[in-house]
Amino acid sequence: MSKEAVNKLPEHELNPDALVQVKNLKKYFPISGGVFSRVIGHVKAIDDISFDIMKGETLGLVGESGCGKTTTGRAILRLMNATAGHVYFQGQDVFSLNKHDLRKMRREMQLVFQDPYASLNPRMNVGNIIGEPLEIHGIAKGAKKDKIVQELLETVGLSKWHMRRYPHEFSGGQRQRIGVARALALKPKLIVLDEPVSALDVSIQSQVINLLEDLQTEFDLTYLFIAHDLSVIKHISDRVGVMYLGKLVELTDSDSLYREPKHPYTEALLSAIPIPDPRIQSKRERIVLEGDVPSPANPPSGCRFHTRCKYAQDICKREIPELVDVGNNHFVACHYPLS
Amino acid sequence: MTEKLLEVKDLHTHFYTSDGEVPAVNGISFHLNKGETLAIVGESGCGKSVTSLSVMRLIPDPPGRIVDGQIFFEGEDLLKKSDSAMRKIRGNDISMIFQEPMTSLNPVFTVGDQIAEAVELHQGVSEEKAHKIAVEMLTLVGIPMPEQRAKEYPHQLSGGMRQRVMIAMALSCHPKLLIADEPTTALDVTIQAQILELMKKLRDETGTAIMLITHDLGVVADMAERVIVMYLGKIVEEAPVDDLFHKPLHPYTQGLLNSIPRMDRGKERLHVIEGSVPHPANMPTGCAFNPRCPHVREICLERMPELIKKEDGHTVRCWLYTEEGQASKAVSKEVSS
Fold first, then answer.
1. Under-70 pLDDT residues of chain B
2. Which of A226, A258, A217, A184 is nearest to A67 (CA)?
3. In this predicted complex, what is the ipTM?
4. Of A253, A266, B51, B132, whose CB count within 10 A is highest?
5. In what helix (H) or strand (E) does residue A33 lie, and over which residues does it extend?
6. Closest chain B residue to the Cα of A272, Cα to Cα
7. By CA distance, what is A207's nearest residue in B?
8. Exposure of A228 in the CB half-sphere (CA atoms within 13 A)
9. Contacts of B230 in chain A (CB under 8 A)
């Protein structure tokens, strides 16, 4: 990575409607082994993915465990350093920022975690949890901070007297609201939501989803919504990216994805999810994929899905398909996209 | 024609905790016919898993205890059986698969040995024969290279494979009843699809009755013939699967069905059940659902309704479907969005 001052995206590549532009992002984790703990291989958690997140949209990232969706979210926020590639936030290269500038930019992008039990410090009261970012960034302290915290609590549907309470006094859904309030404290433009409702019960899940939708309208937020549940993703996202073994295999608006999936993996994924209506479900045909997801340390050659794909041909074993637009901004990485 | 395989009558299972006595299962009655698939649904803490553990007599005591009720399996009360008699039933007539296949397999034995052990114990066959049956079972559940896999340890298998091993073990003695407690919750969707298809195939081939415990209404729609909905230790609704999804009666069931995002629907705002499940040690008086119910009447705050039979096989625990309830005055609630 270059050491010059903040890199900007070249004019001709800049998309004025995009808040975030991800270019050829890679993240490899070294595997060490042997007597001297030498690096003997790499887990390719993300392997060369590119996409844009538009201003004000919700981009859903979906995939099964180990597909790299969480790593993608964290690499965008530079919570881990990527192996290669660039992430541009409003045209500025996030990876080339120095510590000071990075901290400033972090105000603009926040994260909400999956586990509302593990992501709140049990020794801090709610007022301090939500107020901490305000103090760290020198925005407010004392009475002024308290006032902002109280407003935030009310924004996420809690009461201001919850300020003096501790995380263990709240239910899972309420804790997730606290996590959201903390993310909102710095008035960010982008919030990365990493499985924000997976740990919640069905009746609480819908409360949090509705809250997130309301906040997006109210504060003009852009979401990167990471989840494994395609029903939730379909509901909340404007566009959806499907990941498989570190690759983005399909990216389009959520209706087209559901109506006409172009990648065989997306097709199988959609058919695998049972629809909660016995009359519809009994008529659906399920495409059962054989076997398991291969190891990301030793991914298959060519198209990574070819080992489980019923349409696979010779070329799929040899050449990695590019993610290309097959019309109407429907991107798919497949040698033989479905029609 | 239909024969009852399992009949649970007025089961009460309580836990004695530092928060006081918690009635995790608070007087439930239901039955399961031979070869039938019954789903028990509900959110965390509703008592669905405790119900299944009670049937297996696997409630850890202390802190838990079955304080009242009867559980008839083929006409005999399981709660009156000795521990050794119960051990003969478990794994032989009634088998169970759990949510987490890693913690329910023994890490220091090969999977083949673990399946063979159950077969040897229950069917009294030789060790050699038991191993042969184990490999057959692994073949049946679709594990490739079963002979080789039988010699492997649980950690060498993926999550989906482990769940297949659990199913192979559970079915190795041809049980009459299979209790599946969240069998696919820990698995990825494409693996879930494999396991659900497998369970359906085995059910159709062996005629095993299945008691399916889950919170996933999609899985219920896919697998079940009849459904029981539980809320805070009680059954609030019971219906054939089609009725439950198309004519839900209890406000809780209606709320649940409306609050799940569905892939085949658009982006309409999700319906919400207000509030959250109260702690079972701190139960509201009257109907347990009254703090969250949009149709509360005065009587709901005072007395718990009985299960009312509405149609054939469709029962509901709600005052709205009684004359008494209809006559009771509606309670106005502050509306919080």
1. 1, 333-337
2. A226
3. 0.83
4. B51
5. strand A18-33
6. B193
7. B272
8. 19
9. none
